[in-house]
Amino acid sequence: MRFQDVEIRKLSETTWEIPRGNGMRVPGLIFASEKMMGEILGDEAIRQVMNVAHLPGILKYSIGMPDIHWGYGFPIGGVAAMDAREGVVSPGGVGYDINCGVRLLRSELTVDALRPKLRELVSALHREVPSGVGSTGFIRLTPQDEEKVLTEGSRWAASRGLASAEDIACTESGGKLPGADPGAVSAVAKKRGRDQLGTLGSGNHFLEIDEVAEVFDQEAARAFGLFPGQATVLIHSGSRGLGYQVCDDYLVTMADYMRRNAIVLPDRQLACAHIRSPEGKRYLSALSAAANYAFANRQILAHQARETFLRFLGKGPSDLGMRLVYDCGHNNAKFEEHEVDGEKRSVLVHRKGATRCFPAGNAEIPESYGHVGQPVLIPGDMGTASYVLAGSLEAMRVSFGSTCHGAGRMMSRTKARGSMRGKSVIREMENRGVIVACASQKTLAEEIPDAYKDVSEVVGVVHDAGIAKRVARLRPVAVVKG
Amino acid sequence: MEVRGEDLPGLFSSCVLALFSLLVDRRTVREAEARSAEVTGDTVEEQFFFLLREAFQLFAAHTFLARTAHVTIEGKRVMLTVTGEPLDSSRHTVLREIKAVTAHAMVVERSPGGFLARFVVDV
Q1: DSSP state letter for A243
Q2: Is residue A206 less than 8 Å (CB to CB) from chain B?
């Protein structure tokens, strides 16, 4: 298979290698089926994988997941691990929405039991969980509170009675990244974030009620508390305006750093600084702060959803049993230990549209999941399916403990909107058995199922490649969109 | 966004207005007060990028909406004055959530009859 002047080598049914050449420090590695590769070659994502391979300190491979598509500098669905001493950190390798991620709540209810009240429940969730452009949360942060959110993440929410100890234990990194420094976050970023804590946002962010439609791995599903027919809640959101601004601020800082240090890369959007430089350290401190904001944001959204269920259904917390399965980010850069050339090394893993996927036995996983691996949450489009996967040993070997993050956009927002002109997305979704409540019809049209790749195909590739194990398929029955 | 202008200050002014048109129906914005900003850049592209970032921050950080924009350029310095008013949710509907103005595929170039600029915002 060829991409422009480059011959791409098929390594297996699910892996492809882009040979090292033209200044690339490592080869590229793409996880995809042959059919998906055909689609991937249609945009500039492969070029972006090759560009990322030029970054100083990159190890083993510049990696693309099957949901890869064009992004800002780095592709979305990309993984790049940098040597912690010699390598660089790049805001474009994390993305604007720092620590954007997904959280799954399970319940003791079945969707069949909920169905008679589902429409009203969705309206209540739409009312109670702020969403849409310019929405503000029920929490008004003082500047002092906001600094605590930035340093404590979900633990700040716990201190306000908005999170349980179990919520914290079932959140990646315990809902708090170390090294966060609010002083590294600009005043503009803080201002953008102050009124947005506990808001979903717009675009592809959502709150969904799903039904566990199929279980593939009984043992893992049992460990995660999932059973067929069960009602679950999936929340997708991130660090809101605060994270966007942190990324924007540091892209400028890094561009200046590159100029001063004569770092030349094929794309200026790969702006970066050495991890150990003052600029690199400061960005990592700001990144951790924004990541903590995102953890707290999803925690508060989950709290609001839980409270709405309790009030609406008139049940007690133990009857409802709405407990957190897991919360994982898919836009981050984290220091981790990985084996490189037979040697344990400290590396900074950039995951932009990629999910951490640690295997059974890893110390970072909650104790109750220790024997099956980390839950990995893969949201699909709003009309088809989402998946719960589990971490695998193979991911540690080949993809720095990473796997895909979603279906991956296939159609631009403008094209998606155009394709729905004159049609009612809400009615089309109802025909599929999905109730939709939304703040903006325009945004909804941008998120139609046809705008995305087939999530089952994406998940099939990572399962077959061994970089995650399929555990359960979720079917959306109700969606709240911003 | 693709924008054309007769000269660079005119082009830059139109780009600022185009940016605000992505955020709100500008016809609903009153010219109640003026805000100013200044940026510097070594190249025209830098000046353009920093100007749009600064213009966007008027909204992102201060929820200020612009109805008119006026740009002057003196060497490396670019001065922006906008008139408008703070967001009033009873009269203004924000059309989309913009994360940032990006440098992706950003172009400022001469074109027949003046100048052309292209920029991409992340939504």
Answers
A1: H
A2: no
Entry pTM = 0.95
Domain residue limits at B62: 2-122
Distance CA A387, CA A171 (A): 18
> Which residues on B lie below 8 Å from A199 (Cβ)?
none
**How far from the centroid of its chain's Cα atoms is residue A175's Cα?**
14
Contacts of B95 in chain A (CB under 8 A): 133, 442
Q: Indicate if A126 belongs to the active site.
A: no
Distance, CA of A210 to CA of A325 (rounded, Å):
14
The CA distance from A140 to A197, in Å, is: 8
Q: What is the CATH number of the domain that holds B68?
A: 3.55.10.10
Task: Convert the pLDDT of each residue in A171-210 to its tens digit.
Answer: 999 999 999 999 999 999 999 999 999 999 988 899 999 9
Contact A133 B123 (CB under 8 A): no
Q: Looking at this predicted complex, what is its ipTM?
A: 0.88
Task: Please check whether residue A360 is in contact with residue A372, taking contact to mean a CB–CB distance below 8 angstroms.
Answer: yes
Q: 10 Å Cβ neighbour count for B2?
A: 10
Number of domains in chain B: 1
Domains of chain A from N-terminus onward: 2-481 (3.90.1860.10)
Residue pair B87/B28 in contact (Cβ under 8 Å)? The answer is no
Interface of B with A (CB under 8 A): 53, 57, 60-62, 87, 89, 94-97, 99-104, 122-123
Q: Which has the closest alpha carbon to A279: A302, A299, A250?
A: A250
